[in-house]
Write a structure and sequence with these properties.
The protein has a domain at 60-306: Aspartate Aminotransferase, domain 2 (3-Layer(aba) Sandwich), CATH 3.40.640. It contains 14 helices and 15 strands. The protein has helices at 5-15, 48-51, 60-70, 85-96, 107-126, 147-150, 156-159, 177-183, 209-219, 272-275, 291-306, 309-325, 353-362, 385-401, and strands at 27-31, 34-37, 42-45, 100-104, 134-138, 169-172, 188-193, 223-227, 251-254, 266-270, 332-338, 341-346, 365-366, 368-370, 374-377. Strand 14 (368-370) and strand 15 (374-377) form a beta hairpin. Helix 3 (60-70) packs antiparallel against helix 11 (291-306), helix 4 runs parallel beside helix 11 and helix 12 (309-325) packs parallel to helix 14. It starts with a helix and ends with a helix. 47% of the residues are buried. The model has no long low-confidence stretch (mean pLDDT 97).
């Protein structure tokens, strides 16, 4: 007996925790940039599972790599070596120039790993007094949902009711170099930021901000940590978004698209100094670096490069932004973005972005609202020009009609 969409939704509501508020669509199949619901309706995916499926849904080469490895060996723990981990290290190092790599599972785990490692580096290498290490972060940041991470969030929804929180973090406005410089002390061990703030609404800092931050970190012996979990792996039209500013972080965090949506995989990419402080027993993960994850990640990286997805993100992103910018709508305040990481910010008086996302769903487009008045657009990087034209017709209809 087939179930109706409302049956699935009711069961989720009855049995699941209510920590999400998804759009009312029940998906059952994905291919490339398209998704289908349980009633057979097709949608253009403009979220990519928060940029986890940059390579498109169910990419056949990644799927085949997963199936092949799943038939051989899936998990050993790091108590033993496996024949895929070293190969992933080599692939990541060749692509990014990383000298040391630590694989984890989720993006939040990568962030927590970096925080632990850089504090230890501060004490053992920089000489910060025990218990005094400070990490500078940015207002409106989003680095995950763990207790350690929400402790330095400025989002009241993320923080309320979860304290007390760990000390050791200073918050400065994103993109404000003077505030960053003023926050630095002799106890500052790291500056942690997103190159573009995704959850905050695709916020891009002033040109040159990260170049000056890089110079400051170098001059004051501070580790620059860039969270590229959403912005990295082609999303902005570069392998890493830091390339737009011509900088190189000391520690770069990647995840999400590192597996093309097939499996949770993340990694801390570092210079030798920071990750070099970790000794056996001081940090780890049962699933981190498992052979199945490594085989999937290796192919996910390979198809990004082989199939020109990074370059496609740049060209189709520019075309998409141009088309959105030409829509004459009193609801739209600004269109901004880099590559296929795009935001349509609405005037507050236009009503909430959620209603526009619901209207877009009815037109066959799945996008996500963020921070009340922003529609976030991040389709898979296999998007074609025809796909963009199809989407623009529907965005035009919804934005000019109103929600």
């Amino acid at each position: 007996m087939s179930r109706l969409p409302e049956d699935y939704i009711a069961a989720e509501h009855r049995l699941g925790a209510h920590n999400y508020k998804p759009l009312d669509v029940v998906l059952t199949k994905g291919e490339g940039v398209w998704l289908w619901d349980v009633e057979g309706r097709r949608y253009l995916d403009c979220l990519s599972a928060y940029s986890a499926v940059n390579q498109g849904h169910c990419h056949p080469r990644i799927r085949d790599a997963m199936i092949e490895q799943a038939g051989k060996l899936t998990l050993t723990s790091r108590a033993f070596h496996n024949d895929q981990l070293a190969l992933l290290y080599e692939d990541l190092s060749a692509l990014t120039g990383a000298h040391k790599i630590l694989p984890m599972n989720s993006g939040a785990e990568a962030v927590e790993t970096a925080v632990k490692a850089v504090r230890k580096w501060g004490y053992e290498v920089k000489g910060v007094p025990a218990g005094k290490a400070e990490i500078i972060v940015c207002a409106n940041n989003f680095h995950g949902r763990t207790l350690g991470i929400v402790g330095f969030s400025t989002d009241p929804t993320a923080r309320a009711g979860f304290g007390p929180f760990a000390p050791g973090f200073k918050v400065v406005p994103f993109g404000d170099y003077a505030a960053l410089e003023a926050a630095v002390t002799d106890n500052t061990v790291a500056f942690l930021a997103e190159p573009i703030q995704g959850e905050a609404g695709i916020l891009i800092p002033p040109k040159g901000y990260f170049r000056k931050a890089r110079e400051l970190c170098t001059a004051r012996n501070i580790t620059m940590i860039l969270d590229e979990i959403q912005t990295g792996l082609g999303r902005t039209g570069r392998l890493l978004a830091e390339e737009h500013e011509g900088v190189e972080a000391d520690v770069t965090l990647v995840g999400k698209a590192l597996s093309g949506g097939f499996y949770p995989v993340s990694a801390v990419l570092s210079n030798s100094e920071v990750l070099g402080v970790l000794k056996p027993g001081e940090h780890g993960s049962t699933f981190g670096g498992n052979p199945l994850a490594c085989a999937v990640a290796r192919m996910a990286l390979k198809v990004l490069v082989d199939e020109g997805m990074i370059e496609n993100a740049e060209t189709k992103g520019a075309y998409f932004r141009e088309g959105l910018g030409e829509i004459r709508s009193n609801a739209v305040r600004e269109v901004r973005g880099r590559g296929l990481m795009i935001a349509v910010e609405l005037h507050p008086e236009a009503g909430g972005a959620r209603a526009y996302c619901e209207a877009l769903r009815d037109e066959g487009i799945l996008a996500k609202d963020t921070h009340d008045h922003t529609i976030r657009i991040a389709p898979p990087l296999v998007l074609t020009r025809d796909d963009v034209d199809w989407a623009l017709e529907r965005f035009d209809k919804v934005l000019t009609r109103g929600a």
